[in-house]
Amino acid sequence: MGVTLLIIMKTITILLWVLANQVTCQTNGIFPARILAQQKAISEDSDLSVTCSTFGFKKQIMVCVYLCKDDIWIDRKMQKPDQNDTTFTIRSVGLHHSGNYSCVYSTCNNLLPKVAMRGDNVIQILVISNILPADISVAGPSTVSEGDHVAFRCTVSYTLQTLGECQLINSYLRRNETILQVQTFDVTRMEATFTIEGAVMRDSGHYSCVVLPSKCIREHEKTLCGNNAVFLNVTVNVNWFLPVFISCGLITLMLSLGLSLWWINKQAGYLASSNSCATDVMGEQQVQTEGEDLDTQEGDSFSMEVDDE
């Protein structure tokens, strides 16, 4: 009973406020108008277009239409007597353009003061960020060896607003402010996983992760292909000069060793032959000397015998 009474009192209060607002507007020459928008959620840096309609509210007179954001007018345009719709366009919107929009019009040409005013209806415009920071962590130690696989986990701890409540968006893995990989971020799970296979020295650095709430990925887009496909064959780049140089060096070294061994053997044979010849000469000289000694002894003996006779 108490809850029902509270709801009734709130409803009456709102109706009284709306009625008082309309009376005040009409007293000051300000009248409510209707606002229309094709998109209520738009991406950052895009254009916002809304239409203020006075159809059924004004007579065929010249009026000034005001576009209001959070009950304060931000732009105005003149509307001719034969017109009922006036379009306002905000170029390259930012996050600060999110808010509640409505329209009013005035029969006075004088500029209205910046006071609270609200139109016949209110629409909420939500500007979706193009890029937002996310949290990153390494699944394992932060120091790895070359050839190891490294997995990064990208998460978001706050509620993500996406275009059309999209459940799949893009996310970037960056190293030293350079984009390395693009991965699908699951808004339901609030995470994405990046993997570096076969880490090398150049993979060292500071890693970070960002998400792109305005870059929606539809379910069918995950299987889309391009107009054609090309095959890239990566081969090992072998430097032919180095193997040839090494082969020539080995051949030269082997030839040098062979020539050295041949020369050494030749010198050894020459020395052996020289020693043999020298030995033979010395032997002949010794024999000759011994023969001469014998002859001398025989001569002496013969001389002694002659003397004795």
UniProtKB/TrEMBL annotation:
The keyword Electron transport does not apply. It comes from the Eukaryota. Residues 1-20 form the signal peptide. Residues 133-225 form the Ig-like domain. Residues 285-309 are annotated as: Disordered. The chain crosses the membrane at residues 240-264. Keywords: Immunoglobulin domain, Membrane, Signal, Transmembrane, Transmembrane helix. This is Ig-like domain-containing protein.
